[in-house]
Design goal:
alpha+beta, 14 helices, 415 residues, 37% helix, five-stranded mixed β-sheet, six-stranded antiparallel β-sheet, globular
Length: 415
């Protein structure tokens, strides 16, 4: 198995996937995952100034469910979060909606995602602003996940909550060893989410499935009040970096790691998963159509932000965040990590080791209307974009140029 295992699965089953009736978001995901880092999306050409060796690098699709694009984006995202996270203890809170609402979720994915974000935010902000539970404004980062370990539908919200915040006087105050009582946070979250559901149905925003009438919905609605909702508060972390690293694995690259694919044929796909109950690695076999149905089900709706920040971590709270960082500091500067090393890398020639500048790029020809008629004609004729004024392509054509080397590039540190 390799990093291209999931892409190879999509490529091998492309005729089957094309025959499926699917939403536009799934169609876009299939198209991008199958063409990622292939000549279809274009090529960047690097030329060694010493011996004119040519290297070609295929472009990435940059889809958030593509594993091939995930690693670089994941590390860049981590570096950005470290500059925002306060250097203080954090709590990890997980909000889960009842499985009775799964059929409703399938018909109202984007709307219920917004409800889950809002209910989780209001629950934490309302309780922590109460003097009984701290009377502070904390920093909150939320990440929406819709899958379980078996790729089944399991919508839940991961929340990283700072173990302290600013009180009404603008002073920093720590929360101590505990966040809020579990029973209290479960009841408040249930009330917040149920209120949004009720308002959404009365306003005509919610679409009911064919097998669920309004009377049946209200019976289901009342029955969920009589059950205990699942809200899990993990033990306090001394800093938030551990939880952010955990979330980064699932915020970028899709719900499945290529190493989880054990075997595959035209009938069944075997995958491994970690059972959270007994912490043992187990295997399950899914029929081909069921596997792709589950995988494509977890692609977020276009334009839906699956990671959001509130409180001190919100974009509108820069002044309050700066005041808090002056007291406890941030994680920026500790362990520069992969992001800093990535920015210091340059493309080097495998023959002589010299840095290789980008010569030109070929882009995929897109059909459509462009206000720049001249650029549209250029794309249709050759799809070549020069990076600098020197015409390396023509110079190299006049000489005996070795065949280009395609695939991954060699990167060296820029001294």
């Amino acid at each position: 198995m390799s990093d291209r295992t999931i892409q190879n699965l999509f490529l091998a089953n492309k005729p089957f996937l094309d025959s499926l009736t699917k939403p536009l978001k799934a169609f876009k995901a299939i198209e991008k995952i199958t063409t990622c880092r292939t000549s279809t999306l274009g090529t960047s050409v690097y030329v060694c100034p010493e011996d004119n060796t040519v290297y070609e690098q295929y472009h990435s699709c940059r889809h958030r469910h593509c594993f091939l694009c995930a690693e670089k984006k994941r590390q860049e995202w981590l570096e950005h979060q470290k500059a925002k996270l306060l250097d203080c203890p954090h709590f990890h809170v997980v909000f889960t909606i009842p499985h009775e609402y799964l059929s409703l979720w399938r018909f109202n994915e984007e709307l219920l995602s917004r409800y889950l974000f809002r209910a989780s935010r209001e629950t934490l902000m309302t309780l922590l602003s109460d003097k009984k539970y701290g009377g502070i404004c904390p920093g909150i980062m939320m990440a929406l996940h819709t899958w379980g370990r078996k790729l089944d539908l399991h919508p839940h919200m991961h929340c990283l909550v700072s173990g302290g915040g600013l009180n009404t006087q603008g002073d920093w105050r720590s929360l101590g060893e505990y966040l809020v009582p579990g029973g209290v946070i479960r009841r408040v979250f249930r009330g917040q989410f149920q209120a949004l559901l009720k308002q959404g149905l009365e306003n005509g925003e919610i679409v009911l499935p064919d097998d669920l009438s309004r009377a049946s919905f209200w019976r289901l609605y009342r029955s969920t009040y009589r059950k205990e909702w699942c809200v899990r508060i993990e033990e306090r972390y001394e800093h938030g970096k551990g939880v952010v690293c955990y979330l980064a694995r699932y915020c970028k690259g899709g719900p499945l790691h290529p190493k989880q694919i054990v075997s595959a044929n035209d009938r069944e796909i075997q995958m491994s998963y970690l059972d959270h109950r007994d912490k043992r690695v187990k295997a399950q076999g899914l029929k081909r159509d069921e596997f792709f149905k589950r995988y494509l089900m977890h692609i977020p709706a276009d334009g839906l932000h699956t990671v959001r920040h509130y409180g001190l971590y919100a974009a509108a709270s820069k002044a309050r965040h700066k005041r808090s960082a002056a007291v406890v500091g941030t994680l920026k500067g500790c362990d520069p990590g992969y992001g800093e090393r990535l920015r210091a890398m340059v493309v080097c020639c495998r023959q002589c080791g010299s840095p290789m500048p980008l010569s030109y790029q070929r882009w995929r020809a897109w059909k459509g209307i462009s206000i720049n008629k001249e650029s549209l004609e250029d794309r249709a004729s050759g799809n070549v974009q020069q990076v600098d004024e020197s015409d390396h392509a023509n110079v190299l054509c006049e000489k005996e140029r070795p065949p280009p080397i395609r695939g991954e590039l060699f990167f060296g540190l820029n001294a």
